[in-house]
């Protein structure tokens, strides 16, 4: 009986006997013991000392009888080929299994990386919120009071008003677009700047820091706020979003921009106002202050012409004035009878006007710090107001399907425009010659051909839902409108 190696299956040249009772080729079992320290057959612990050499006569292995003829050689080669094919198949099967395991590991690694990235973003956001709260706590006084507008601020507002009135008299509007050009306006472009899962763009503001409002140009940037709780900073020329301002947890209802710094202010249904500061190099924005003055949804924000503070209104029957540099509330304008839907400072900055739910326009004098007699403007909810840049006119719109035009010098309405659908927003251009009105699915533009008469110039169709906000471009070169149909449209 020939000795057969339990590992190789052939007659060993240097046979050894293991403690477990198996015969092996000496160098094969030694290598195996060094690697695993166990018997390859039984799995029992085994060392080099546990193997004993076997003395046998050296025999020359005879050639197989089947290999002495050509058919035998072919049969042997066929058997070897079959064994090689079987080994190759097994190897491929093993490689496929390893590949599947590797793919699973790679997918698992990618998923883990994404989770880690999301957690890092959430951590950074939480740290930013904590930093904001710490900054506000360090800037706040021990006594919960509001300093109000001091005499120095009132003096600066008065000086600014005098300067603005003087500038207004010298200002030329020759570069502004003519009414005949506006008649030919069509929808040339439309943009989808916000999420389609929570459709609707609710507000818009031109970036006043990067352009001159009196010189027509298409190289403009805009801020938009949407139902998805995001403020988007958008490049109209490149037709792409530069930055997404993340922080609000509910729809963003209003947005306004600073004229002297890359600052944006937004208000949301989450009852907060965020002051965003932009980096001119990267284009990214971060929240520098979080204002939690209101107890309900924020309906509007508007920056004062002096650019040091801004006003806000909410569905809590309250308006407030806040400092931009500190994020603190300077003065609350409470004890109002109704919710305020829109607030706006006069171009000279001396008064603040608000549109309320009962159709009144309330006016607060900054110098006297008192309310003036409210104006009954509409028989239903007053949704929006807008001051003309000429400083004399005020426009308002309401759910009574009308737009009322007011002469501030006489505190009287000189014209009322009857509409077929409810208006949602109104806005003057920077020359004061044009007034745009946003309604259910259309945008209208009126021209003040004479000082006391506004005539319809153009009615633009294209939106498929309620138009939520509108704004003129520099020099009235174009008009932008936002809508609940997920689009921002450019009319020119």
Describe the structure.
The protein is built from four helices and 32 strands. By secondary structure, the protein is an alpha+beta fold. It folds into three domains: 46 residues, Zinc/RING finger domain, C3HC4 (zinc finger) (Herpes Virus-1, 2-Layer Sandwich); 54 residues; 341 residues, 7 Propeller (Methylamine Dehydrogenase, Chain H), CATH 2.130.10.10. Strand 23 and strand 24 form a beta hairpin. The protein is elongated and about 130 Å long.
Quickly list its features.
single chain, 492 residues, alpha+beta, Herpes Virus-1, Methylamine Dehydrogenase, Chain H, 3 domains, 5-stranded antiparallel sheet, 4-stranded antiparallel sheet, 32 strands, repeat, ligase, mRNA processing, Pre-mRNA-processing factor 19
